[in-house]
Amino acid sequence: MALRNVIGIDHAVVMVQDLDKAAENYRQLGFTVSPRGTHSAHMGTGNYTIMFDPDYMELLGVLAATEHNAPARAFLDKHGEGIERIAFTAVDSAAGAEEIRARGLTPIGPTDFERPVTLPDGTVSAAKFRTFMWPTAEAPGGVRIFACQHKTRETVWIPELMKHANRAKRIKQTLIATPEPAQEAAHLGRLIDREPNAESDGAVTVPSGGDRADFVYLTLEQLGKRYPGVPLAGLSERGGAALVLVSGDLAATEKALGSAAVRSGSAVCVPPAKANGTLLAFVTG
């Protein structure tokens, strides 16, 4: 029975050591980066967002140690920068938390928080969220999952922030490295009631729901074969490895990426060492 209050991937969270430096790095890669946001005090975090349609990327940094961000700090200490968790869109976080509780899992939350947002006309509003997390131990491939209910979509999906010089349009796939792709994909499939699909190269895909991005579990060796010539230094054998982004114009993408660009087959890539621990692969369609 599919989850009724949770739909596909909403955003990917890239944990970074220095929030402002990371934002400047992504600007240099041709992304339009939102103004910096500071979350409610109990969260202890700040962020920059990179908005697509219907999803986005979040650069997240710890500003003050709190109980809530302890897992994120542990991730940075152990793995360094990179994809630390993936959010689904929650239709109703309270109801979604009860859905997974009924399946024998103890949700973390729901948690309400917000951050101030300066709108393009200079006025200040707020982005408000209600999230819940699957238990911290339930992290297929080492990537935590949670669901995010947007109470104020109009202060997050701002049209001026959704146009990027590198022509990024949306997330197509989230690639997660693991020595056991089938096992980790089956784990996620149980958590979100989705059926894994084996691919010809041994990777395993799990649809996230609706028209949203897929999860792909694969070994580092398989990842290297998908993107030959792209240095994978900085990636661990288990954990969030890459985001495949749809580009509206690969020639424009390559120009915007400049010296960071690496052509690999039909994709234009940025190695993880140049994108805060995350391989970025731009593709058409």
TrEMBL record:
Highest taxon of the lineage: Bacteria
InterPro entries: Glyas_Bleomycin-R_OHBP_Dase (IPR029068), Glyoxalase-like_dom (IPR025870), VOC_core (IPR037523)
Domain spans labelled VOC: 8-150
Protein name: VOC domain-containing protein
Source organism of this protein record: Bradyrhizobium nitroreducens
